[in-house]
Amino acid sequence: MNDQKTSPTDYGFEGYLDWVISSGVGGIAGSIVFGAFIGLFYPNIVSVTIPSLYGLEPMGGFGWGLHLAHGLFLGVIFGFLVTREPALRTLVLEVESGTSYGPSMRLTLAGIVYGLTVWIALPLLALPIWTSITGNTDPDFPAATAESFIGHLLFGATLGFVFSNFIRISERT
After folding, report:
1. Which spans are transmembrane here (predicted)?
2. What CA–CA distance (Å, rounded) separates 42 from 151?
3. Measuring CA to CA, which of 47, 76, 86, 158 is 20 to 30 A from 28?
């Protein structure tokens, strides 16, 4: 019986930065893209609404700081999930099919799925519970809008793309 644990490097994850830093940077980049996109439709969403969800007054770039912290945290969760054994096997598996997606494209697609999951879990499920408990609510918060949906997909795509480019994935056979 093999008692050795597999690690990301066993699957060819190596390189520039480790998975924690790479996923954190990807999460921050994704939250910047998401914030810029949603800001086109709701200009005060990041600077005013996000602090108000915590019962805080908006001041300076505090809302953006919270938004980037959310992205960092969610990015590290993504990195943790995709560097575990079941996900690693799937993401680097060579499949015999007509279309050949490399690990970088697979990580970007995994990021999109993760963005969709975050959209369902946080603004659609957790946010209503949070606001009912705290009483901090903003009627203008775009939880279940097309813009929020697309923004979360952009977050995930950016996260997966940045992560896959900061982590070099060598083809191991």
Report:
1. 20-42, 62-82, 107-129, 149-167
2. 12
3. 86
